[in-house]
Amino acid sequence: MKQLVIDPAHTDLGFKIRHLMVSNVKGTLTDYSGGMKYTMDDMSDAEIRFEADVKSISTGNPDRDTHLNGEDFFNTERFPKIYFESTFINLNDNVLKGEMTIKDTTKEIVLNIEYNGKSVDPWSNTKHGFEINGTINRSDFDLTWNAVLETGGVLLSNEVKLNLDLQMLEMINEVEPKTENQEV
What we know:
Elements: E1 2-6, E2 12-19, E3 23-29, E4 32-38, E5 47-53, E6 57-58, H1 62-69, E7 81-90, E8 95-102, E9 105-120, E10 126-137, E11 156-170
Antiparallel strand pairs: 1-4, 1-11, 2-3, 2-11, 3-6, 4-5, 5-7, 7-8, 8-9, 9-10, 10-11
């Protein structure tokens, strides 16, 4: 069985949401962990697990980040983590399905996954690259706060676009390989 773990130094977990119905607000999660286990070369039997600390959300605006962590949105005092566990993966068709849990609400989501291949870094570690994109409906996860605009419409769309760029380290005998952030 092969095991991969997320390399946080080379991974970006991004999202964006339509604001005022005319532009997008973008953000990232910066504290997360996860990985993949598989035995088949096409990764069709892969088990992917992921969790993120919601308090690590960053939109470039501290006041907005505080609001997102509060009761109107994620309520991180009660629900500090987001979880994902895969149920199906097909790299030939670029399909990843899984169960996402936000605020104790679990829903199946379908994402687009692209495997960018693998390479060996200067420290002889094998790394794999993935791009994962998709859309979730935030109201499915009880993220319903909004405001009606004077001109009609709402402040925030329900649609949240996910854009994940993952680099994953291949584990050797369940021991994390050396990286440029560690002594060789």
